[in-house]
Amino acid sequence: MVKIQPDEISSIIRQQIAQYSEEVKVVNVGTVFQVGDGIARIYGLEKVMAGELLEFEDGTIGIALNLESKNVGAVLMGEGLAVQEGSSVRATGKIAQIPVSDNFLGRVVNPLARPIDGKGEIEATETRLIESPAPGIISRRSVHEPLQTGLVAVDAMIPIGRGQRELIIGDRQTGKTAVAVDTILNQKGKDVICVYVAIGQKASSIAQVVNTLEERGAMDYSIIVAATADSPATLQYLAPYTGAALAEYFMYTNRHTLIIYDDLTKQAQAYREMSLLLRRPPGREAFPGDVFYLHSRLLERAAKLSDQLGSGSMTALPIVETQEGDVSAYIPTNVISITDGQIFLSGDIFNSGIRPAINVGISVSRVGSAAQPKAMKKVAGKLKLELAQFAELEAFSQFASDLDQATQKQLARGQRLRELLKQAQSSPLSLEDQVSTIYAGTSGYLDEVPVDEVRSFLVELRQYLATSKPKYGELIRESQAFPDEAEQILKDALTELLNGR
């Protein structure tokens, strides 16, 4: 029988200890001690991270938002009716994230990126954090490429560029969504992927948008993220971030995206509801003080990336609803300060029959002509100036009885310019059509046309150019500029049409 020496045993033990590297895995589990109104308070979960996904016993998913000294405040991502006091909760170790892939194009999803259009599951191999940090200053390039909306008033006077954030603001029922949807329709064939995020909208309104996009063949390059009015506050708060994560996936794969948040007022309301239920201290006007950060960390994600990062872009069109045109309220001023300009839609202008009801006086683009094609730059400068002068003159002329010839001429010109800005819904115009429309107005060709016939004359002009003078459109499409040859063709077309009337 072989005897084992004590020093041999100790050397074996030492060896085992040296090689022992297996970590003890602690499962991060907690217990619900209070639940209600979509909020759960949980004991335990010592190692939970802020924004981590939690899984409840019944399969409900939650997000840990408040990490307090004695408990964790979590919001539930569904009704959570089966979550009860004493239920166990497991931390998943994952910060809130969603699957992303090209297969999302043409689909309608909820804020968890799960399909709700009945067309089956969406295959995805990659995921993205719902809240990703915005690109830094070095990662960006200044906005220099146009993103055409197809609306004459916007493209001529309040131009939007790829990577810009342009706020659409106005009272309810003034056509804010219509401007956004027209912009999506106008991206057809321009290699821009569109994401429309509906927050707290009626399901019927969202269905209407989907129908419009499907009829015009725009769903092929669009994704819709829908948090309907009956969704829990958590999902309405998350929807814009989900949309941004989907758009970012395309931006970082060197593509151009357009994202519409419709509307951020409802997101702020959902966030306030959530925050007050989590017992966060309310700040100004009973909003939690970080509602500014809620929107700024969302909108800062829009960018025009540098060439080193593949020069993709994400253009954001947030929508904010005002009460009685009050732009100086809390949320409108917040979002105005984060964006690069705003398109202000006015109820009075809408009711006076001007659609889109854009108030050119208060609307502004802080990117300006850097976001305009050369052709538009050439013809649009004069338009804004003449309209501004007309607005002043019109107010003045209401009190004057006899006006001199020059003033009457200027007023007549202004009325016709205002007519050419009117546009039917869901009929965005191409660049060459916009240029011909503006040129006809600012060069005085419409002065002889009666005001009520201006729009029909412009339709005639666009058709005439397309059928009889296709060279005009080709020249502008090829160069994005307005060469002398194109100008001459346009002059001839206008003269021929006016002589034939």
Give a quick summary of the entry.
Helix content is 38%, strand content 19%. With 501 residues, it is α/β, with parallel strands linked by helices. 45% of the residues are buried.
Helix content: 25-40%
Broad shape: elongated
**Count of the domains:** 3
Per CATH, which architecture of the largest domain? 3-Layer(aba) Sandwich
CATH superfamily of the largest domain: P-loop containing nucleotide triphosphate hydrolases
Total number of strands: 17
What portion of residues belong to β-strands?
15-25%
Largest sheet: 9 strands, mixed
Q: Classify the oligomer.
A: single chain
Model regions low in confidence, pLDDT < 50 over at least 5 residues? none
Distance between the termini: 123 Å
Under CATH, the topology of the largest domain can be stated as Rossmann fold
**Count of runs of 4 or more consecutive helical residues:** 15
Mean pLDDT, nearest integer? 92
Site (Required for activity): 363
Catalytic activity: ATP + H2O + 4 H(+)(in) = ADP + phosphate + 5 H(+)(out)
Main location: membrane
Enzyme class: translocase
Overview of the structural elements:
It is an enzyme of class 7 (translocase). F-type ATPases have 2 components, CF(1) - the catalytic core - and CF(0) - the membrane proton channel. CF(1) has five subunits: alpha(3), beta(3), gamma(1), delta(1), epsilon(1). CF(0) has four main subunits: a, b, b' and c. It is a peripheral membrane protein. It contains 15 helices and 17 strands. It has 501 residues and is α/β, with parallel strands linked by helices. The protein has three domains: 68 residues, Elongation Factor Tu (Ef-tu), domain 3, CATH 2.40.30; 274 residues, 3-Layer(aba) Sandwich (Rossmann fold), CATH 3.40.50; 125 residues, ATP synthase alpha/beta chain, C-terminal domain (Lysin, Up-down Bundle), CATH 1.20.150.20. Helix 5 packs across helix 6, helix 11 packs antiparallel against helix 12 and helix 13 crosses helix 15.
